[in-house]
Amino acid sequence: MIRKPIFAANWKMNKGPSETEDFADGFLSKIQHKTFPADIVIAPPFVSLAKAAEKFGNVSAVALAAQNCSEHNSGAYTGEVSAMMLKEFYLHYVILGHSERRAIYGETDETINAKMLKAREVNLRPIFCIGETLEEREGGKLEEVLRRQVSIGMKDLTERDLLDTVIAYEPVWAIGTGVTASAQQAQEAHAFVRSLVAEQFGAESAAKIRIQYGGSVKPGNAAELMACPDIDGALIGGAALEPQSFLDIIVNGS
Ligand code: PEP
């Protein structure tokens, strides 16, 4: 099964509209006249989506993502943004269940599942993040945690939803720490996640779904990680804040 790799930049709470414009100008000048055997996604903060849509709206090589959406349609939810509102920004993807949303903002597997279903109602493609903490890994709970996150987070997705979903396996201990999972650790976790998808949705869907690795991916480690058979791209934080570094990861990893 050939799965097209997908490289997504998660800018987190970095880059307002003017820095988004600077990044876009730099990145676009570097990718001009080039084609990539990979999907490229950029996830700016909400307030920079309009600028990103202005810069990348006509660039077929780059798709945009939001970093979160509400589990509700509209109403008295101060500070929240609905999936339907996001569709107006020419978005294709939405990152859901990032470990920072889980740990800092208390998002549960059930909330994340509700967000996944809302995103699918408007045809947004979830980049669904899962991953264990160091304590969980060292306590022998890796498989239990991933099983719970996948079974609840992806509950009630249809086969069609599944084709449009990307899973990002991100060991929490590797996010923003400079410590990357070894290629072997990452491959083992990815193969296990794929087996969970097979249990829940069947072997055919499991063979098709793309599973990104996330956690301190850099230009220097992208090739080794991406060479693993069950790793289909990367979700990148820090190293995707600079156009050349993001591009180097895409090139080295594809
Ligand atoms: C992330 O934010 O999802 C991430 C993987 O960050 P970093 O690449 O900085 O570890």
Automatic annotation (TrEMBL):
In UniProt terms, what function does this protein have?
Answer: Involved in the gluconeogenesis. Catalyzes stereospecifically the conversion of dihydroxyacetone phosphate (DHAP) to D-glyceraldehyde-3-phosphate (G3P).
Alphabetical list of SUPFAM superfamilies matching this protein: Triosephosphate isomerase (TIM) (SSF51351)
The record's NCBIfam families line, in alphabetical order, gives:
tim (TIGR00419)
Q: Where in the cell is it found?
A: Cytoplasm
The record's keywords, sorted A to Z, are:
Cytoplasm, Gluconeogenesis, Glycolysis, Isomerase
Q: Which InterPro entries match?
A: Aldolase_TIM, TIM_sf, TrioseP_Isoase_bac/euk, Triosephosphate_isomerase, Triosephosphate_isomerase_AS
What name does UniProt use for this protein?
A: Triosephosphate isomerase
How this chain assembles, per its entry, is:
Homodimer.
Origin superkingdom:
Bacteria
Q: What is the lineage of its organism?
A: Bacteria, Pseudomonadati, Verrucomicrobiota, Verrucomicrobiia, Verrucomicrobiales
The Swiss-Prot or TrEMBL record describes its family as follows: Belongs to the triosephosphate isomerase family.
Pathway-wise, it operates in: Carbohydrate degradation; glycolysis; D-glyceraldehyde 3-phosphate from glycerone phosphate: step 1/1; Carbohydrate biosynthesis; gluconeogenesis
For this UniProt entry, the molecular function terms from Gene Ontology, in alphabetical order, are: triose-phosphate isomerase activity
Q: Which residues form the active site?
A: H98, E170
Which Pfam family, any one, appears in the UniProt record? TIM
Which amino acids does the record list as binding substrate?
N10, W11, K12, G176, S216, G237, G238
Catalytic activity field: D-glyceraldehyde 3-phosphate = dihydroxyacetone phosphate
Q: What is this enzyme's EC?
A: 5.3.1.1
